Amino acid sequence: MLRTIILIGWVLFSTIVGGMLVLLIAPFSRNGNAPHCIGRIWARLILLVGGVNLKINGKAHLDPEKAYIFMPNHQSMIDIPVIYTALYHQFRWVAKAELFKIPLFGESLKRCGYISIDRSNRKAAFASLREAIRKIREGASVLIFPEGTRSDDGTILPFKKGGFVMAVEAQAMIVPMVITGTRSVMSKGKLQVTPGKVLVTFHPPIDAGEYSRKAMPQLLNKVEMIITDGFYHRPMEGENA
Question: For the residues of 26-75, what is the DSSP string, one character each?
Fold first, then answer.
């Protein structure tokens, strides 16, 4: 319980300080890379305070010179700092609109060039996807949770098609990511934090440019199968982050 209290206090403090730094630096960073680096430092410190032992598999599949659409499963709020720490690529989140309404934090997301998506508004959601496609074509990597939200019971939720439409339109490379262990650290709906091991596995990129809009469901099924199989049949090993 003490660790949980300390972590919550640290998250609040570091988010305020980090958010202020982002707001100060963002006007001088045209591409948003510098604010994103602040996010990575924020994330590493959260994992350190939370007692998260992060391991990574499959980094060799990624070319640091290429842009990707990263698609991880989503089990916990801890997934956010885990992804920041595990991914050395500069990337831009496609995140739900509610996060952008949080004071200071939401403005920091905007200044980093992250993309708000409002799934309750079809027109706005498609506008967000077009913005993501533009960023990908300009050479930026993008990250989107294909489930759309965190799982309540620890299972993999059905994938939503928006990210795959985006991938086909941008003719981008999709990297399926499997995150395991974060639900044990902090499950949805609970603030209690339990130190533990987390594994992030990067699977080989899939070329969405080989799929037409009509064949997009096949692409979705392929990525969903890779992530689901990797999640339920996972080796808990890997290199230190």
Answer: GGG-SSSHHHHHHHHHHHHHHHHHHTEEEEEE-GGG--TTS--EEEE---
The model's pTM is: 0.85
> Residue 10 corresponds to which tokens in the numbers above?
């640290």
Angle (CA) 170-86-25 rounded to 5° is 75
Assess contact for 32 and 113: CB atoms under 8 A: yes
Alpha helices in the chain (DSSP H): 2-25, 33-50, 79-86, 105-111, 122-137, 162-170, 182-185, 216-232
Q: Quote the CA–CA distance of 133 and 135 in Å, as a whole number.
A: 5
Token pair 């939401």 is at which residue? 106
Domains and CATH numbers, the chain: 2-240 (3.40.1130.10)
Pairing of strands 173-180, 196-202: antiparallel
Per the document, the length of the chain is 241
CA–CA separation, 143 vs 62, rounded Å? 14
Q: What is the pLDDT of residues 161-187, one digit of tens each?
A: 988 998 998 899 999 999 999 999 988
Q: Which two tokens stand for residue 143?
A: 């990250």
Report strand pairing: 115-117 vs 91-96.
Answer: parallel
Decide if 18 contacts 34 (C-beta within 8 A): no
Angle of CA points 116, 120, 124, to nearest 5°? 50
